[in-house]
Amino acid sequence: MDYLRVGKIVNTQGLRGEVRVISQTDFPDKRYKIGSQLTLFQEQRDDPVVLTIKSYRRHKNFDVLSFEDHPSINDVEKYRDGILKVYADDLQVLSENEFYYHEIIDLEVLTVDGKKIGKVKEILSPGANDVWVVKRESKKDVLIPYIEPVVKKIDLANGVVKIEWMEGLIDDET
Q: Which residue segments constitute the domains of the chain, with CATH numbers given?
């Protein structure tokens, strides 16, 4: 069965069994809906754990979740650093020009005039727009804002993203 990552548990929150999650989903209201199920994967465990959402809220830059049958901090401490995933079959159809993170990660990034920048290795969601972390050969990673003036074309069939280079966006010296 295929799974897709929706977040990582980074810490506990309070004493009542809540956890802080750094989300990697554009659909937190759907993924963390009360009664929804997530599958937790941990490096030290061979068998994933199915968890049912009991509560969900936003707190600062985190999604805060609690799970059914996990009423205390003692029940969830062991889940720290665990990866929360959903079944790939649970994906919903997106509108035109909308993409899932897993579709963007590993795409080749080129400027509109064909200069190779690197590959998308991660997507950050710090606020108003996503930011793509692009890994470059023998250079520091570069951050590309996912905004219309910068990202010009996403071609999933050919595995390519074309961007408009803007002054200060990429420092070729680093």
A: 3-89 (2.40.30.60), 101-163 (2.30.30.240)
